[in-house]
Amino acid sequence: MKSLIKAVALVVVLAAPVVALAQSDQQPLTRAQVKAQLKQLEDAGYNPAVATDATYPADIQAAEARVAAQNATGYGSPAGGTSQTGSDAPMANPTQQAPMNNSQ
C-alpha cells in the first residue's frame, strides 16, 4: 500500500510541470519583437545607456506607461471628437423602469 502511495505521489510530482507548461498560451518573443519593443521605449523617452540603479525602476515604468497609453489610442496623438452609435444611452439603474408616455 505504501509503495502505491509513493508511486501516485511520484506521478503527480512529475506530471505537474507538464500540465503547467501546457496551460501557457504565450509564445516566446522573437528578436525582432524585442527590438521593436525597445525602440518603442526609447521613442517614449527611455535611454538604457544613462539608466542608473537609483532611477532605473521609475524611468522604465514611466516609459512603459507612455507606450501603453500610446498603444491604447493607436499611434500619434490621442483622437478627439465624438461619435454616435444610433442607440439610446443605457439607463443608470437597469432595474428602474423608464416612465411611459401615455399621451396619444
UniProtKB/TrEMBL annotation:
UniProt keyword terms in alphabetical order: Signal
Residues of the signal peptide: 1-22
Pfam family, one: DUF4148
UniProt-listed InterPro entries: DUF4148 (IPR025421)
Sequence ranges of Polar residues compositional bias: 80-104
Protein name, per record: DUF4148 domain-containing protein
Highest taxon, organism lineage: Bacteria
Region (Disordered): 72-104
